[in-house]
Design brief:
Two copies of one chain form a homodimer. The first copy, chain A, is mostly helical and 453 residues long. Chain A has three domains: 128 residues, MgtE N-terminal domain-like (MgtE N-terminal fold, Alpha Horseshoe), CATH 1.25.60.10; 111 residues, CBS-domain (Roll); 173 residues, Tetracycline Repressor, domain 2 (Orthogonal Bundle), CATH 1.10.357. In chain A, 66% of the residues lie in helices and 6% in strands. Chain A is built from 23 helices and six strands. In chain A, the strands form two sheets. In chain A, strands 1-2-3 form a three-stranded mixed sheet. In chain A, β1, α12 and β2 form a beta-alpha-beta unit. Chain A is elongated, with a radius of gyration of 30 Å. Chain A starts with 7 loop residues before the first helix and ends with a helix. The relative contact order of chain A is 0.06. Chains A and B meet through α12, α13, α15, α16 and α17 of A and α12, α13, α15, α16 and α17 of B.
């Protein structure tokens, strides 16, 4: 097999082969492709073409392709099969975590029908228990396929067990050592199994130091464990300490990718998981909410400025710096929030003791506020005639940076305490609040100073 | 060993132990901790305390701690050692990728002295070649430690080789099969080695299908390969196809993490890699550039609005909607850029054919622009007296959303073509340009309409 780049010209080439009905060429092409590349190809052709292509993929590759393809392509593909066929041809031969993933995307009725049609009752029952775990927990990420060995066995017996399980579990990575009650005691790596004398008792050679999580552990915490301890596979135990399954690094890479994408999209004001290749109305729908929030904020600020209509007529120069003040409030606020959000996500920042964090942020804001205000004051002194305006604008700028930074630090910490994703603090809602806050400070300062000076 | 959360109270507890000089307690505590947790602890104490703690860590754990700790803590720790000692006590016993990573952070002179002091000349020379690869390439990420087997060996000979190499390579994952000239032919997993008859020739059992990269492959491309093909380890070959090293998934997780962080920070206008726990002036320095760009943009917009001073005096209501227009331009632009930047990073978007992408974006912008403008028009008709103003504001809003979206799509694509990181398009520079653009459109439209109507 060869890895390929599925670009437009490749898709065009395959479509041509389909038109020419040169099935032999297509079959040998699909044979030479990785399942991931086939899945990517299927995402980029029409659904009837996708079904045709799938019918030419080899039996044992189809399952892998099915797991890798986009949800809507899979949905359309599976709709041609009865629950019994889905059970026999696909689910039966899949790893349990992949099967649970696909079953979870089916309508409830169909999902139950598929599970009921499985002939392997033990497998069906472990699927049912996997499906019962909440999303974003270890239980929902793990697979039940693993190789375990009783601590009372010898190394040789353990190798025998691998031979017995070899077909079901791939890759193996490590063998889990359990006691009579299936409680996790430790691990032994394949390397150590190869190196150890087959007659030795397992109890003498296994490693008791093993990091494990419980079925209810949150996926973000799991991702942090993989990152911190450089893990490749992580055992999951139930409340009794019994081995329930294992999570492999590829699933965690997926979690890390999704999390980063989520934070990024929240920050850029996109409310759904969209790709540049999605349909126009999907893209539009994902982006409209922020635009509407921005619109509301803009309308609110227009009402606010209206109050100062007379002042603007007397001092139209006040209007000149409105965009500057609003923009700087937004910028300073987003910077503060972003640093807190990242600190929370990477676990480098505790949520205890909010006060010292805000005090630190105050010092950063004070420093940057002073620098920016002094620069702006210098500029205004040189290039504008109004001393009053220079004072007003710089005072307002300084206050805005301070307020926006404190708010930007406080709000994600507060959201996190309230168990809400703090990343929304970097999104549209807060930017809009900071815009408004900036203008309020600006006009209040202006009003006070112009009347005082 | 037990995994631990290194929070403030834990740090406080360790500091108390240090004050009480209860070295026995500290030694047994350090013994029970993972190297990663010790490194995290060292990052959070004073540098003299860190040095004291390090002196109590077991010999074989010290190396791992050294790799995991923050650069500045390591720098201060290593400064107490001579190049000869650094070579003998640390570098000599490290995996080559970790050694290269640490050597790269030393001053050039010291780096050379350390390498020259190594007694193992073969190892020193492979370090030298690792250090010669450019940053962010496969060569700079790989380790030379791996287990390889000649294709003419038997399975049993291959297991013997593992026994010989076991101490140097951990974990092993797979054995690489090479020909007489050390050219990579394929792989065999440990599982298959265990299952195969020791007398079989390796040539009969190894897997010829292996994904590999060259030493010059970019780290982002490598991360995408790991994500797409669910890899755990990836062999690296030189220009002759000879096996040069291997990259493991933990290093790639690091790359993925860093990339996501970089994009996130660029978007939030933070120019350096900073954490919430960094010093005030570091945080200030990382954030000032965006604030200054925002300041410049604000000053530019003030000059621009000044041109329309008379119009504002006659129609102060024009000022009311300035923040709305500027904010909406910024929002629409960032959304478009974010989607393109993600598409480029995940390789789901080609850089060829810019025109259809902009046309698609135009359709999204058209849809969202119409919805927002009509809503705003409705609001203004209901709540403001001026029909002229309602027309002006909605026309300007529509134009701004269109222009900002097209610019937001075009600029990251252009940057990518110019081999500049497209993520800067989501940052301060573009937001500021969009702010300015918005105001320009607003006043131009207003000027035209007020004079026409």
């Amino acid at each position: 097999m060869e890895k390929r780049t599925i670009d437009q010209s490749y898709v065009k080439y395959v479509k041509q082969l389909l038109e020419q009905q040169s099935n032999e060429n297509i079959t040998s092409l699909l044979h030479s492709m990785y399942a991931q590349d086939i899945a990517e190809l299927l995402d980029k052709v029409q659904s009837d073409e996708a079904r045709l292509l799938m019918s030419m993929v080899e039996k044992d590759k189809i399952i892998k392709v099915l797991v890798e393809m986009e949800e809507n392509v899979r949905e359309s593909f599976l709709s041609a099969y009865s629950p019994k066929d889905i059970a026999d041809e696909f689910i039966q031969n899949m790893d349990s975590d992949d099967a649970a993933y696909i079953l979870n995307q089916l309508p409830v009725k169909e999902k139950e029908d598929v599970i009921a049609s499985l002939t392997d009752i033990a497998y069906a029952s472990s699927l049912l228990s996997l499906l019962s775990y909440e999303e974003h927990t270890a239980g929902s990420l793990m697979a039940v396929e693993l190789v375990k060995a009783n601590v009372e066995w010898t190394v040789g017996q353990c190798v025998e067990e691998i031979r017995r399980q070899a077909e079901n579990v791939d890759p193996i990575y490590v063998v889990y050592v359990v006691d009579y009650y299936e409680r996790l005691l430790g691990i032994i790596t394949l390397k150590n199994l190869i190196l150890a004398n087959p007659d030795l008792p397992l109890a003498n050679v296994y490693n008791k130091e093993v990091i494990s999580v419980s079925t209810s552990t949150d996926s973000e915490e799991i991702a942090n464990l993989f990152k911190k301890y450089d893990l490749v596979v992580l055992p999951v135990v139930n409340a009794l300490g019994q081995l329930a399954g294992r999570i492999t690094v590829d699933d965690v890479v997926e979690v890390i990718k999704e999390e980063a994408k989520e934070d990024y999209q929240l920050m850029s004001g996109i409310t759904e998981d969209v790709d540049a290749t999605d349909k126009v109305w999907v893209l539009s729908r994902a982006r409209l909410p922020w635009l509407l929030i921005g619109l509301l904020g803009g309308i609110a600020s227009s009402r606010f400025i209206e109050v100062y209509e007379n002042e603007i007529q007397i001092h139209p120069e006040m209007a000149f710096f409105m965009p500057l003040i609003a923009a700087m409030g937004g910028n300073a606020g987003v910077q503060s929030s972003a640093i807190v959000v990242q600190g929370l996500a990477n676990n480098t920042l505790g949520t205890k003791n909010i006060v010292p964090k805000i005090l630190k942020e105050l010092r950063v804001a004070f420093l940057n506020g002073i620098i920016c205000s002094v620069l702006l004051f210098g500029y205004n002194l040189l290039f504008s005639d109004s001393y009053d305006l220079s004072i007003t604008v710089s005072t307002a700028l300084f206050s805005v940076i301070i307020f926006a930074s404190v708010l930007g630090t406080f709000i994600p910490l507060l959201l996190d305490k309230m168990k809400i994703d703090p990343a929304i603090a970097t999104g549209p809602f807060i930017t809009t609040i900071n815009d408004l806050l900036g203008l309020a400070i600006y006009f209040t300062v202006g009003h006070l100073l112009y009347n005082v000076i």
